[in-house]
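@channel anyone free to eyeball this complex?
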Amino acid sequence: MDKNYLETIRNSKPAQFGILIFIFLILYFLIPQSENNYLWRLPSVLKGIPLAINNVIFNALYEWFPLKVWDPVFEMYEEKAAFREFTKAVSQGLLFLITVVRELLLGGDKIIDVFVSDSWLKENDWLSWPALPWTATTVGAFLLGYQLNGIRLGLLGGIGALYISVFGNYVPSIQTLSFVLITTPICFVLGLSFGIWGYLDKKVETALQPVLNVMQTMPQFAYLVPIIALFGLGDHAGSIATIIIATPPMIRNTILGLKRISPEVVEAGLMSGCTKPQLLFKVLIPAARRDILNGVNTVIMQCLAMVVIASFVGAKGLGLNLKIALNSLKIGKAAEAGLCIVIIAVILDRFTKAWADKQKDYFENLTFFQRYKLLIIFAISVVIFSIIAFISGGYFDKINYLYVIPIEKGLTIAHYIDGAVDWVWETFFYSLNSFNKFLLTQVLGPMKHAYLGMPVIATFTLAMGAAYIVGNARTALIVGGMLLFIALSEYWDRALITMYMGSFAVIMASLNGIILGSIFGRTERGGRILLSFCDFFETFPSFVYLIPVIFLFNITDTSVLIAAIVYATVPATRYTVWGLKSVPLSLHEAGTMSGVSAFQRWTNIEIPIAFPTVMLGVNQTVVFSLQMVILGALIGTEDLGQIIFGALSRTKDGAGVALTLGIFVSLIAICVDVIVRNWAEERKKALGLA
Amino acid sequence: MSPTISCDSVYKIFGANANKLLADSNGSVDAKQFQEAGCIVGVNNASFDVEKGEMLVVMGLSGSGKSTLLRCISRLTDATAGKILVDGEDICLMNNKQLVELRREKMGMVFQNFALLPHKTVIENIAFPLQVKGVGTENSMYKALEMVELVGLKGRENYFPRELSGGQQQRVGIARSLAVEPDIWFLDEPFSALDPLIRKEMQDEFLRLQGVLNKTIMFVTHDFDEALRLADRIAIMKDGIIEQLDTPGNIVLNPATDYVKKFTEDVPREKVLKIESIMDPKDTNASDNFKVSKDDIIESVAEKILNSKEIIKVIDPKDSSEVGSINPSKVIKVLFGG
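replying in thread with the prediction:
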């Protein structure tokens, strides 16, 4: 062959990809499908890993580092593992905190019980903290919003709280809120501390990165079983699961914010004579304030996204109600609970954002009363509404509606929703069903089959080859190593199904996002509107997406995939808009003066320049899709997620299985991330944008 | 009296084994050799003094090491070798506590991109050095207000930095650096990020302030005209080496190296040179119509001298004593060459 020709191929990525796919196809069709052929499937030599993890957990809980602990019931010393005592203390501490907040708002006697004897409490019925009437809470929500950003935010808070109360969701909402109010500060403190540590010490940051990657890409279900094993069931377990998910973005935001501070500002702090603590607390943290508060916002959103999942390990509140409604296919009830979660999410989101943007005016010359006017109004309204509620207690015979409207007695539109759903179901049954059938038999079925028919050597060739082309030998080895770990387990076929669902969702969501973003993102106004839509959809906790699709498409792969596609379209759209925005005006002008048509502008100017940014969006899409695919196990699919989900009921060896499979899903996501990120970086360099 | 700042063979070399390389080189550092060994030379054997009340302008293009030198003297970076004395004390030997003390009492610094704290208002930014020092809120605010007036920002105390123009932001930066009334004032390209017109205005403002305050100043710039305009003495740096350190007039008249010459070639001399540099000895024929000071820049008095068409007396502005004379033909020579 001509030498020049070879040289061209060496330098042309499309040609390299072409050759790679050619090799892949040859391998695909030539390797015989036989269990004894290692090129077809690798032996599951790593079968023992789940068990090993279980043994570690068991030994940590019952064997290692025994301590002598005084047992007050049997009045004797007992041998207990130190780790067990530690997890117990953590659980009890968390549970206590959550209960305190919950009782402060909803009333009760559990906290008082801690300080007085049981018998005395039983004899004195009056000894109970009074509940905060929902009327006072509504006023409080209004005043807080008003204080943060004026009348509009006040109305959002007030009307949101009013809706929740009148529709009978006050108690579960407050339970969920108390969960968020305890979990968020813990994530904040942990995230800020680790973030600062990572900022100050390069080594710590390098060590943190892979850990954070795994934590963020691992499906939430995977944590649940180990958490049950270690901490037991209850609100605290839900809180711990949430902390694991929500802390990494806080750490990342903190590091990002601190790194973004210009070195001159740090120097200015030093030259002003700051000591090290002064520099940290008076210069660094305040200067990174916006990024840090954005981190807090993300944490709160993650907490709310976790409420349903947390209910699997015993967290009370809206999530539990939603789960129960969903299990019995009560779409209306589920939608109402889901709406409450969305309302709380939107309110907290806007409140924290307003708080992040609020600047203190030190030169206000206010009297005590002026300064604390709203707080005083709130205190007064609490007293007044409590008195009214207390007095009118004699008027209602069983339920005091002025304290709490219970869920059975609240207004509801559930039956209207159910009615509407029934109508849609009856009207569109045939078209929906035939669409569903078509998709399942003509697209998804064959696709799944094709994935499962892929010899392991072909998969490796494709993944490692792609990694090599966009990166280097090292990238290929990283990707190969991670996949090998999965291939040597007994779950390779399940992983292939996960990959099939994931890749379908990723491709569709990316296409949607790029098309949507390209159509609307070309004008300033369109882009802004589209981004605010993205903001809105992003406040929806992930499982909310499942409610409508289950109903429309039953429990099939279609439902899960559509939910995944819709959910993952959001980041793809967002990054496409950002990417298009990043195209410099001068390039647009140069294009216009060269006489490009709208389509030529898109293909020749906008897409190439926006490409690296769009790829980062695709990266996010992968994480979002995989999360939803795994979440789909909630309603029944047959990929890795289903086994993870199943492990919830296998407490004996469930922890090991769930963790292992969770890591597998995380590895799949990280593999794609490595390839896509390298590709984006390389394009960036080629365009001179790095 | 000892100089306020005194540098003796200061080196700053970036890189992992900088110390070893420097020890091996016996003080004669070759930037290229060091680069091959993976080190970058920031400052190469800098030795000079800055007297009390003097303004030394360090001038060089980007990458010449001028900012690095300034950061060594403020110890924002540690010099690799050499002695840096501030009021006779070697700051390289100071521990963190002494350093904080030194900065709180003696040093102020202005930054190229202003480096204002984004979360603090104008007045809080200015009061910041006082507050970290432990001055109470009332006193620090009172002092900061004084500074606001000094830099002409009255009425904008409660603005945030983002609400101010570049020139105004730098005024805040200047006020902040002066709040603790430091003896030594570091300015790192303070006007480089500003528009040309604003830059001129800020230079005037700066000269006015210095006329009132009389600090010991190290001023870093990449703008040769700015250096000529402001400096008592100029240090010209290239690749970490100080190529020439002298008064503006001497640098323009006698550039020490070809590199310096490139800067001075196009400089209109009448704008830089003082009468002193072209005056003749005392002349009894000199006219009594008017006198010029030996410190006057030629351009500023050229028209008067040429109009008079006579030999004119030159005096020392300090005691008004006659120190020489100036012939219009000399002025014509400077103005039109030949």
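from a first look: The mean pLDDT of chain B is 87.
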